TrEMBL record:
It holds the Pfam family WS_DGAT_C. Residues 1-20 form the signal peptide. The keyword Cell inner membrane does not apply. Keywords: Signal. This is O-acyltransferase WSD1-like.
Amino acid sequence: MRLLWNTIVDVFLLAATVLFLKDTMTPLKGNANVRRNPRRFYHRTISLDDIKLIKNAMNMTINDVLLGITQAALSSYMNRQYLVSQEQDKNDELEDGSLLTSYLPDGIRFRAGCTVNLRSDIGFKPLAEMMVKDSKCRWGNYFSFLILPLSIGLETDPLVYLEKSKAIMARKKHSYQAALAYFFIKIILKVLGAKAASLAFNQHLKNITTCVSNVMGPMEEISFRGHPIAYISPSSYGHSQASLIHYTSYAGEVTITIGVDPTVIPDPHKICDDMEKSLKTMKAVLWERRLL
């Protein structure tokens, strides 16, 4: 019953987002012309072992931890932006750049699109196995998307961000919205063509603030024609948000890649700073509470 109810609610919210439901206009929300603007890309590398430590201590998944870090970092970054826009005194700013007082408005609707794998089997499979008919891990694109309502606000306890992210992801796992969205887009593609499917998919993206993804990369270092690869930092161009956040694991590290519209977000490195700082703070709190 819970699964059915969650699916109905999620499909209704998806339809509302396509038609009229928009996120709050914030310092991270792009305008209607954001797709046509140039992009700037920035990356930062953090420790995968630290993320796993937090994952095990909090009994959650790596995706939960990354979403918690994202919520914490975006809350901190936006709070500083609202401080500047309100031209407030910076006397409450700490040495590390964080703030004691929240300048965030109440009731912010801030959502992130998140791609999800629809395959029943996950991980790396031999190519021959993926090419077999009716393979559970078939070759080609087989993914959909979720809309995640992020919690934007300053928390005195950084672990609250992790608890909220875990609750958000647990709620979305008990819904068939991703599978139904894939089914609807596939029908539109077959009946009305690629242009109509693209318009339908892009319509909901215009009304949310950002997109977040996490991709598992090679677990060991690899090389290309004898040249070792230092890091893997994928992103994309032409999307309908002013920011796009990718996490990619590779050889014991996680690379954060942020693609932004510089006319909206001129300092993406500060978001990466906030992400790195949030991870360290969460780990330090767990050490203090002897949970690690």
